[in-house]
């Protein structure tokens, strides 16, 4: 209700003081300048205006702010009218101090310090002198001192193999004091943009609303250690911290703008108007003249926004903060098999920590217990066991002073991974008929693509389309992946994640006399293991349902299995795979594939693959097909 | 409605001290060590939102979310640092006498860089006193910590 009152009061006061202030000052003289200034990119950025015809509207003169709340605008038409908002903002900034300045109803200068600063700057750049009252803003000052930031850092939360939600990454900002290296960045403030979820929405609704825009997004600030706990511990995601090349003045502008955005609702879309996009907007406000958001109007994958900032020279060398699970697995790797078993027994309470003489084992035991009990409710027994391990660590560490838990080595930084979109051209022979494929993939990474900066065994592909042209034939649709996710997450003594995959798309099926396209959904679950370094073996049970698109409208369902081996070599990733499936309509399909990816730098590769199909439709018709393909793939 | 309530809190930047409990209600002073995170949202929820559901603040408070800085518990006349947000990390670091949570607590208590190693040693050596049993709360830990510091010639100045 506060905000409603706030706005109401402003309008009343506007009307009342309209003549006194507006005509009494020199605003009238600057009406031509108003047009120019209110169209400047800095004003447009500050108010988050966009041409509203971008997707839907034919009106090419229309503008619209991405801010939903009316409170953000002083003019009733401010959401769509840059000029009127400019004039109304100046009016509000000129109001005498006596009208406002209670904490609940702050003066416009205090509510919008960055906007006020920009107005003054733009006016003075155009030699327009307006007088504004001197307003003290204790509320803002107090907050600004608390968020003691002279430097800004971009933090990228990378993906975790078994969590599809994390696969696109996430970004947020952190504000550090000048002397943060002597202090603690745990106590720095983090700024996050995210949708605010109503309690009671179920998870399908979350996904749906996130995609179509049913949520509003808000900025929120919290101590950085809250984010460390959220990502490193709860979600097993590593954090990459990139100091931003912003001057203290620019950071101050950024924070002043952040203050304006507290509790202000933005439109939120998972793909484009997301966490990463909004952060780019903030940086544009802080650093006039830098253009960051333009490439991301359609979709903003967080890592692509990191790349853009990197290419714009805004990022310094990153700091890598390994996730809790990475720390556990790396420390466990240094132990022998029997030592790992011992650590597990200690964590599970089957072995008493008293008398244990190895800090490395106790450390892994504690990390493992923390990892496994993270999402459990506290029990007295569990708490006792954890304290028991820590007491043993405490006692032993007083005499053995040379041990510290090991830090996992720093992997390839995520911005140095291959780019998100991909186009490929493929040639080959299918049953002795030559063909050419053209492939496009909107995002992101498949199991054979160069793994630098990605997780081995994880892939997520969306919007992949393949067109094929055989010699003497027309170009035809060959394959569509609407979504294709693989999570081949190896199991070991301490961690037993499920391997799973899901695929929705259109596939070509080879029958006795012809072939046809079918819309299909398939997926399954199973187990992966890593018998040797850089070798992954997997096996899954699968189910599939499909709907023929050849006019027959045949529906079929099948059950089957899939297995394979992946080898990660210095040349590139190699794989062999076998899948078999028995269908309700008495057919069986077997598919064998072998492929070798040859990495040629970060964004290019050559892939050679062999595929063999054996489709049995009845006892009489057994269709065998094979093909050998070579393709050039380019990530852009 | 939640947003409106938060707005009131944010706008009313001069926090009125809560008489209910040190740090205010829901501040976590009663949190026991190893509280865990039971019942936190799933990965799927985070998928389309990246939201921190219902836990929005704007850095108006010190320590953790929702805690007032003007509780009755204090050391040296200053408002007490809130440990409850990093209690699990702090206990693990204390056992080893090193780590980022230990540093964070030292910094938030105003301990000068030169004295932080002394602080780390004091915590390391008095682990059994500070974390006397598995059900200690953030408040217990804080009070024991202050006692340990008081009995240390270099650290007493921070809590006297």
**Share of helix among residues of chain B?**
25-40%
User: What's the number of extended β-strand segments of chain B?
Assistant: 2
Helix content of chain A: 25-40%
- Mean pLDDT of chain A, to the nearest integer, reads 87
H/E element sequence of chain B: HHEEHHHHH
Q: Would you state the CATH class of the largest domain in chain A?
A: Mainly Beta
CATH fold-type name of the largest domain in chain A? Porin
What is the gist of this entry?
With 636 residues, chain A is an alpha+beta fold. Chain A contains 16 helices and 22 strands.
Descriptive overview:
- The complex is a heterodimer of chains A (636) and B (160).
- With 636 residues, chain A is an alpha+beta fold.
- Chain A folds into four domains: 2-138, no CATH class; 147-321, no CATH class; 335-399, no CATH class; 417-635, Porin (Beta Barrel).
- Chain A contains 16 helices and 22 strands.
- In chain A, the strands form three sheets. Chain A has a twelve-stranded antiparallel barrel with strand order 10-11-12-13-15-16-17-18-19-20-21-22. A seven-stranded antiparallel beta sheet of chain A has the order 8-6-5-4-3-7-9.
- In chain A, a hairpin with a 3-residue loop joins strand 20 and strand 21.
- In chain A, helix 13 (324-333) packs antiparallel against helix 15.
- Chain A is globular and about 90 Å long.
- Mean pLDDT of chain A is 87; it is low at 1-29.
- Chain B has 160 residues and is mainly α.
- Chain B has one domain.
- Helix content of chain B is 39%, strand content 2%.
- Chain B has a two-stranded antiparallel ribbon.
- In chain B, a hairpin with a 2-residue loop joins strand 1 (74-75) and strand 2 (78-79).
- Chain B is globular and about 30 Å long.
- Mean pLDDT of chain B is 67; it is low at 1-25, 38-57 and 59-74.
- At the A-B interface, helix 7, strand 5, helix 8, strand 6 and helix 9 of A face helix 1, helix 2, helix 3 and helix 4 of B.
């Amino acid at each position: 209700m506060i905000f409603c009152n706030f706005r109401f009061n402003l309008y009343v006061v506007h009307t009342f003081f309209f003549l006194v202030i507006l005509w009494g000052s020199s605003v009238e003289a600057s009406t031509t300048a108003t047009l120019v200034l209110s169209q400047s990119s800095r004003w447009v950025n500050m108010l988050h205006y966009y041409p509203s015809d971008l997707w839907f509207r034919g009106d090419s003169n229309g503008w619209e702010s991405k801010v939903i709340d009316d409170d953000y605008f002083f003019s009733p038409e401010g959401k769509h009218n840059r000029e009127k908002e400019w004039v109304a903002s100046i009016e509000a900034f000129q109001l005498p101090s006596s009208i406002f300045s209670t904490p609940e109803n702050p003066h416009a200068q205090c509510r919008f310090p960055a906007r006020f600063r920009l107005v003054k700057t733009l006016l003075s750049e155009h030699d327009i002198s307006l007088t504004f009252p001197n307003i003290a803003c204790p509320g803002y000052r107090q907050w600004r001192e608390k968020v003691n930031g002279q430097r800004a850092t971009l933090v990228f939360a990378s993906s975790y193999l078994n969590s599809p939600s994390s696969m696109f990454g996430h970004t947020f900002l952190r504000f550090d004091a000048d002397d943060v290296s002597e202090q603690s960045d745990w106590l720095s403030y983090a700024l996050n943009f995210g949708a605010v979820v109503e309690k009671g929405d179920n998870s399908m609704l979350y996904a749906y609303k996130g995609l179509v825009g049913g949520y509003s997004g808000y900025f929120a600030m919290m101590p950085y250690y809250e984010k460390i706990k959220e990502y490193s511990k709860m979600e097993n995601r590593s954090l990459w911290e990139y100091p931003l090349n912003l001057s203290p003045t620019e950071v101050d502008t950024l924070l002043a703008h952040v203050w304006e955005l507290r509790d202000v609702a933005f439109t939120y879309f998972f793909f484009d108007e997301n966490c990463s996009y909004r952060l780019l907007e903030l940086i544009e406000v802080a650093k006039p003249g830098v253009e960051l958001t333009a490439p991301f109007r359609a979709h903003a994958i967080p890592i692509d926004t990191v790349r853009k900032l990197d290419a714009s020279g805004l990022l310094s060398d990153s700091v890598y903060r390994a996730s809790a699970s990475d720390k556990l697995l790396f420390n466990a790797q240094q132990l022998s098999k029997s030592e790992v078993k011992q650590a597990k027994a200690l964590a599970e309470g089957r072995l008493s920590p008293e008398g244990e003489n190895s800090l490395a084992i106790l450390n892994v035991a504690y990390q493992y217990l923390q990892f496994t009990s993270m999402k459990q409710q506290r029990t007295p027994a569990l708490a006792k066991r954890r304290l028991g391990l820590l007491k043993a660590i405490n006692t032993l560490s007083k005499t053995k002073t040379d041990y510290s838990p090991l830090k996992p080595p720093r992997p390839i930084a995520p911005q140095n991974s291959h780019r998100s979109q991909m186009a490929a051209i493929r040639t080959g022979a299918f049953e002795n008929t030559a063909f050419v494929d053209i492939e496009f993939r909107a995002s992101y990474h498949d199991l054979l693509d160069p793994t630098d900066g990605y997780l081995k065994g994880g892939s997520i592909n969306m919007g992949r389309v393949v067109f094929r042209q055989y010699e003497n034939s027309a170009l035809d649709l060959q394959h569509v992946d609407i979504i294709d996710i693989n999570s081949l997450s190896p199991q070991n003594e301490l961690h037993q994640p499920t391997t799973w995959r899901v695929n929705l798309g259109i596939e070509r099926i080879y029958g006795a006399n012809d072939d046809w396209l079918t819309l299909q959904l398939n997926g399954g679950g199973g187990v992966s293991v890593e018998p040797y370094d850089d070798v992954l073996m997997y096996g899954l049970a699968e189910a599939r349902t499909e709907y023929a698109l050849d006019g027959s409208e045949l529906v079929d369902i099948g059950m089957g299995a899939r297995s394979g081996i992946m080898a990660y070599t210095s040349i590139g990733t190699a794989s062999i795979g076998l899948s078999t499936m028995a269908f309700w309509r008495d057919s069986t399909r077997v598919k064998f594939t072998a492929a070798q990816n040859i990495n040629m730098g970060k964004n290019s590769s050559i892939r050679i693959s062999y595929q063999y199909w054996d489709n049995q439709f009845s006892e009489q018709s057994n269709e065998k097909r094979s093909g050998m393909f070579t393709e050039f793939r380019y990530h852009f | 409605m939640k947003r409106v309530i938060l707005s009131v809190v944010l706008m009313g930047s001069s926090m009125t001290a809560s008489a209910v409990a040190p740090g205010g209600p829901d501040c976590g002073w009663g949190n026991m060590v190893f509280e865990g995170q039971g019942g936190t949202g799933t990965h799927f929820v985070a998928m389309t939102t990246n939201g921190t559901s219902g836990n929005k603040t704007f850095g108006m408070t010190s320590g953790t979310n929702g805690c007032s800085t003007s509780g009755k518990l204090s050391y040296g006349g200053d408002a007490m640092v809130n440990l409850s947000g990093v209690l699990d990390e702090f206990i693990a670091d204390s056992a080893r006498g090193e780590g980022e949570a230990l540093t964070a607590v030292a910094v938030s208590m105003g301990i000068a860089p030169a004295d932080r190693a002394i602080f780390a040693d004091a915590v390391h050596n008095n682990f059994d006193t500070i974390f006397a049993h598995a059900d200690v709360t953030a408040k217990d830990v804080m009070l024991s910590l202050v006692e340990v510091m008081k009995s240390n010639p270099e650290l007493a100045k921070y809590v006297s």
